[in-house]
Design brief:
This protein is of the alpha/beta class. The chain is 36% helix and 22% strand. The protein has helices at residues 53-67, 84-96, 110-116, 130-133, 139-151, 168-182, 204-215, 227-231, and strands spanning 5-14, 24-30, 49-51, 72-76, 101-105, 122-126, 155-162, 187-191, 221-223. A 9-stranded mixed β-sheet has the order 3-1-2-4-5-6-7-8-9, with helices on one face.
Length: 234
């Protein structure tokens, strides 16, 4: 097991994305990612601290005592599952503090998820159509991950960031991928927040059309913005 992990920051804030938006979370942001989405607004390769499980647990415990209670401790990044060997050793201690664990993941590292799934309560899985991310296709990885997350019996929802360049055929493929596992899995369409090279969010007409397309195969499709960006918080 990894003795240390690279952590960018640990901070309390409002969950800004997905079906738990608006809840108070304690965020642990891990360094690095295995994808490079061009709309990403996080400096996931920025300055970091090398932390031991004991040091990180102590930091979380202090913040829970000072600023809690929190709905959950949110593991975010970057991609936190890159640190699965560390998490496998650390999460049991975190659970012993009585904390709910919320995993924010790009949904491509199925084997790593299986290592830690027993200590995760909520899985917030990004599904990434390549026309939106301008990165490589990861459909096979998404399918394997989604089936594992659903099979683990954890609370699960899927988030799809959509841009003006998102292709409807890729969204329909995304909806089909989810529905083939369970049409009741909530799917959130998240209009991109303009950032870096991405300046154009999808139009009202695009969002309406894509929502209707999702409802043809899924029972729970929602459109939610990044509320932490609207509020001006981290």
């Amino acid at each position: 097991m990894s003795k240390t992990a690279r952590v960018i920051e640990v901070f309390p804030s409002i969950q800004g994305e997905g079906i738990h938006a608006g809840r108070r979370h304690l965020f642990v942001r891990f360094w690095n990612c295995n994808l490079a989405c061009h709309y990403c607004d996080t400096d996931y390769k920025g300055p970091y601290r090398e932390v031991t499980p004991e040091a990180l647990l102590s930091e979380v415990e202090t913040l829970v005592r000072q600023s809690g209670p929190f709905h959950a401790v949110s593991l975010t990044g970057g991609e936190p599952l890159l640190w699965a060997p560390f998490l496998k050793g650390w999460l049991p201690s975190l659970k012993s503090l009585g904390q709910r664990v919320y995993l924010e993941t790009n949904g491509t590292l199925d084997a790593s998820f299986k290592e830690v799934s027993g200590w995760v309560d909520i899985v917030a899985m990004d599904l990434k159509p390549p026309s939106a991310t301008a990165d490589r296709s990861v459909w096979t990885e998404h399918d394997a991950f989604l089936r594992s997350a659903h099979g683990a019996g954890r609370e699960l929802f899927v988030k799809i960031v959509v841009t003006a360049d998102t292709r409807e055929e890729e969204l329909r493929k995304s909806f089909d991928l989810v529905s083939q596992v369970d049409r009741k899995i909530p799917v959130v369409l998240q209009p991109v927040t303009p950032w870096g090279p991405v300046r154009q969010p999808p139009s009202e007409e695009q969002i309406a059309r894509w929502t209707r397309a999702g409802e043809e195969t899924l029972s729970d499709v929602r459109v939610l913005p990044q509320i932490h960006r609207l509020l001006g918080v981290r």
